[in-house]
Each structure stands twice: as C-alpha cells, then as structure tokens.
Amino acid sequence: MAKGHKDKVAVITGAANGIGQAFAERLAEDGVDIAVVDLADGAATVKLVEAAGRQAIYVKCDVSSEEAVAAMAKTVNAKFSHVDIVVNCAGIFPQKDFAEMTFADWRKVLGTNLDSTFLVSSAFVPGMRKRKWGRVVNMASSTFGSVVMGFAHYVASKGGIIGFTRALASDLAGDGITVNAIAPGLTRSPGTLARSPRAGFATMEDEFLSVAQMQAIKRVEAPDDLVGAVSFLTSDDAAFITGQTLNVDGGRVRT
Ligand SMILES: NC(=O)c1ccc[n+]([C@@H]2O[C@H](COP(=O)([O-])OP(=O)(O)OC[C@H]3O[C@@H](n4cnc5c(N)ncnc54)[C@H](O)[C@@H]3O)[C@@H](O)[C@H]2O)c1
Predict the structure, then answer these.
(1) Structural domain of residue 241, as residue ranges?
(2) What is the distance in A from the centroid of ligand 1 to the CA of 19?
(3) For the chain, first and last CA: distance in Å?
(4) What does the buried/exposed string (b/e) look like for 214-235 if buried means 16 or more CB atoms within 10 Å of the residue's CB?
(5) Is 154 one of the catalytic residues?
(6) In CATH, what number is assigned to the domain containing residue 133?
(7) Cβ contact 32:5 at 8 Å
(8) Which residue's CA is minimally distant from atom 34 of ligand 1?
(9) What is the pLDDT of residue 199?
(10) What is the pTM of this model?
C-alpha cells in the first residue's frame, strides 16, 4: 500500500473505461474510496473498487458542464465526508484535419479535456485546502512532444493541461496540495480501439505496433502501465513533487 492512502477519497473522471478505470482499481487496492465520474456507465468500475474492499459511487456527469460538475460535487460530498484526490482523466481525442476543423470541434475538445480539468479541480480544492492535504493529477499526452497530424485541438488541450498543472501547483503548494500530470504514450484503451487509424495504417493494431517501435520499450502501452504513476503521485512519498509532467510512454518522449 502506498504511504498516506488509507481511507482517502478520490474523484476520478473518465473512470468508466480505459486508463481511468485502471486508476480506480489501483487506488482502491491502495486503500482509497472512489467516486467514479463519467458520462458512460460506471457500474463495472464500481464493482472493481468494491472487489478491492473499498467504497465506490458512480456519478453520471458531463465534466465539461459547469452545472453538471456542481451537481456531481454535491452528490460526491453527500456520500463521502471529504475528497482528498482528484484525477482528471476524462478526455476525447477525435482526429480531424486542421482544414476541416470547425470552431465547434475545437470547443468540444477544449471543453471536454481542459475546461473539465479546471471545473473538477475547482470543485474539490477548497476542501483539500481546509484539510491541508490534497493531490490533483491531470492527464497530458505524449502527443504534446511528438509529430502528430489531425490533433491541433487535442494537442492544444494537453498543452493547456500542462500549463494549468504548473500554475496551479504554485497556487496550492502552501496548503499541502500537489498538482502533477501524467503523459501516456499511445495506449490500448476502449477509446483508442474505437478510433479510426491514422493515415498510412490499415488498422489501429498496425498503428499501436508502429508507435511501440518508436519507444525504448517496444511493446504496446496498456492502462496498467500507468497505474504505478498515479499511485505514487497521490501518495505521501510524492509530497515534494509538484508542477511536473511525468512521461509514462515506454521511453518515447524525452523532456
Ligand atoms: N489512450 C491513449 O493512447 C492516451 C494517450 C495519451 C493520453 N491519454 C489521455 O488519457 C485519458 C483517458 O484516455 P483513455 O484512452 O482511457 O480513453 P477512453 O475513451 O477509453 O476513456 C475515456 C473516458 O472518458 C469519458 N468521457 C469522455 N467525455 C466525457 C465527458 N464530457 N464527461 C465525462 N466523462 C467523459 C468516456 O465516457 C470514457 O469513459 C484522456 O484524457 C486521454 O486524452 C490517452
């Protein structure tokens, strides 16, 4: 068990699937109760958390909506007396050529990936401040340090998340709250499996295998490759680490 996790409470957005679900299962194993926040059904994640011996609640919420996040926070606060950890993992990654990208496409990605990170953090930071302990973990992406086409909105959202992480870390350090980001490489998840492959690849599997060849560790990344990072960054052991973006991508991006 990671130091400082026992009986903590985490809100994890995007926890119904993929990386967020793996985070929920791991933090539950570490001794953390979990609020599973997602638009998609979170019942499977709730079962995983309960199987690990912790409490869970699923709250359906569009994290890009200020009203929906306020309602979600009310439900979570009614179930748990405190929230110590926020993991902003909900995200979308629709590929679109810049020539065809509309302002609506841009707003949708920025709203889902970046506005949500602000809204959900804002909802739970005041409670962390009162208790002088908190952890915020945001999701960046290796695409921010890579050559990728058709992701101007997505890469911009992840750059915004890295900037927000750095700035918020400075604002909250005095209250015992750290703010960090994790940057995964291309990871096999329900979201990426449902995507169309990039130009030049017949299938997503071809794209996964090709990206793996660009990594020092040449196998396809899985959600479980990321759980150690979230466990560490939300523990007492990481109390002196803040404002950082940790690349967890098999050694692909070096920054
Ligand atoms: N999989 C990758 O290759 C990869 C790489 C780098 C970064 N990431 C980031 O990791 C995070 C998780 O990715 P994943 O691969 O697990 O994706 P996924 O699509 O498998 O899961 C994302 C979850 O977010 C939820 N979600 C989407 N929009 C939402 C909204 N408006 N409100 C609430 N929930 C919403 C979805 O319902 C889904 O359950 C994202 O932020 C993504 O950008 C993923």
Answers:
(1) 9-186+223-248
(2) 7
(3) 30
(4) bbeeeebbebebbbebbbebbb
(5) yes
(6) 3.40.50.720
(7) yes
(8) 38
(9) 80
(10) 0.98
Cβ 178 under 6 angstroms from ligand 1:
no
Give the span between the Cα atoms of 95 and 114, in whole angstroms: 17
Residue 2: the pLDDT is: 78
- CA gap 215, 209 in Å, rounded: 10
What is the three-class DSSP state of 99? helix
pLDDT of residue 110: 98
Is the C-beta atom of 187 inside 6 A of ligand 1? Answer: yes
Model pLDDT for residues 6-26, shown as the tens digit of each residue: 899 999 999 999 999 999 999
SS3 4: coil
1 is a domain residue: no
pLDDT digits (tens, 9 = 90+) for 106-142: 999 999 999 999 999 999 999 999 999 999 999 999 9
